[in-house]
Design a protein that fits this description.
Structural class: alpha/beta
Radius of gyration: 19 Å
Number of helices: 10
CATH topology of the largest domain: Rossmann fold
Helix content: 40-55%
Distance between the termini: 51 Å
Number of strands: 11
Largest sheet: 6 strands, parallel
Strand content: 15-25%
Order of helices and strands: EHEHEHEHHHEHEHEEEEHEH
CATH class of the largest domain: Alpha Beta
CATH architecture of the largest domain: 3-Layer(aba) Sandwich
Shape: globular
């Protein structure tokens, strides 16, 4: 039995096209308004890390494709935390900016929590602010972290039933594991978060109808982790010695056992960007219609 491939690349195109149509409609309605404000995303990069620069450029290009206005800010890696927070506070007050994203990781002399905490929760399109984390945990509407949201939207777009299913998430990070658990609980899944201290991890994973790997260990999940017919979502992005991108799942092995599986690359990654754009649009509607 070969698995169905869940193509985040193709599903993200659907979301982007829907978003572009919505923004095009707004622009057509305000074509005669010289003071019209359209969805805007500000991306801040501190330093010139090559990987971060690639991510930032991809986000700018994606904004252009759907009609979101992109604002870019680059600080030297010698900039102080106070200078970064001052910039964030300026963007918090800027009516043209509806989403603020500070590219991580930050230089070691900056406190990530303090920087994220400085972003207006209503403009926190990464979904990292403690306010948004708290709202998610109690099931209230909020801006949700893009990667977990992308995982959920893929499952929904593929019409994969979540309610009542056993979901095992390998990884308990604040960025993926914990918010994804909250999302799956809200969809009435029975959720278990596994981690490095979990006993008999393989046996636990084999109970999963939906298995999600988010640990950052290349090829960690092999076929003996997977119940035949299970849905496998691979969040991992790892580079092998040849600089090729690999997931946390040994794809070729698991493909023969799973009912459905996401590839790496081309799975969760494109959905993360699509959800960032969607969050920016959501923030725009909230801030301009309130």
């Amino acid at each position: 039995m070969a698995a169905t491939v869940i193509s985040g690349k193709e599903i993200s195109k659907v979301f982007r096209e829907r978003l572009k149509q919505s923004i095009d409609l707004i622009k057509s309605e305000k074509v005669d308004d010289p003071n019209a404000i359209f969805p805007g995303l500000a991306v801040i990069q501190v330093g010139a890390d090559p990987a971060s620069s690639i991510y930032v450029n991809n986000k700018k290009k994606s904004c252009e494709e759907v009609g979101i206005v992109s604002f870019s800010y680059t600080l030297e890696d010698t900039a102080t935390e106070a200078e970064l927070i001052e910039l964030i506070e300026t963007l918090n007050k800027d009516p043209r900016v509806h989403g603020i994203l500070c590219q991580l990781p930050l230089p070691k002399h900056m406190d990530e929590f303090s920087v994220i905490n400085a972003i207006d929760p209503k403009k926190d399109v990464d979904g990292f602010h403690p306010v948004n984390k708290g709202l998610l945990s109690i099931g209230r509407d909020c801006l949700v972290s893009c990667t977990p949201l992308g995982c959920l939207m893929m499952l929904k777009e593929m019409n994969i039933d979540i309610s009542g299913k056993n979901c095992v998430i390998i990884g308990r990070s604040n960025i993926v594991g914990k918010p994804l658990a909250a999302l799956m609980l809200a969809e009435n899944a029975t959720v278990t978060i596994a981690h490095s201290k979990t006993k008999d991890l393989k046996a636990l994973c084999r109970t999963a109808d939906i298995l999600i790997a988010a640990i950052g260990r290349s090829g960690f999940v092999t076929e003996d982790f997977v119940k035949p017919g299970a849905v496998v979502i691979d969040v991992g992005i790892n580079r092998d010695p040849d600089n090729k991108v690999r997931g946390d799942v040994k794809y070729d092995e698991v493909f023969e056992v799973a009912g459905a599986i996401t590839p790496v690359p081309g799975g969760v990654g494109p959905m993360t960007i699509a959800m960032l754009l969607q969050n920016t649009y959501k923030s725009y509607l909230s801030l301009t219609q309130s």
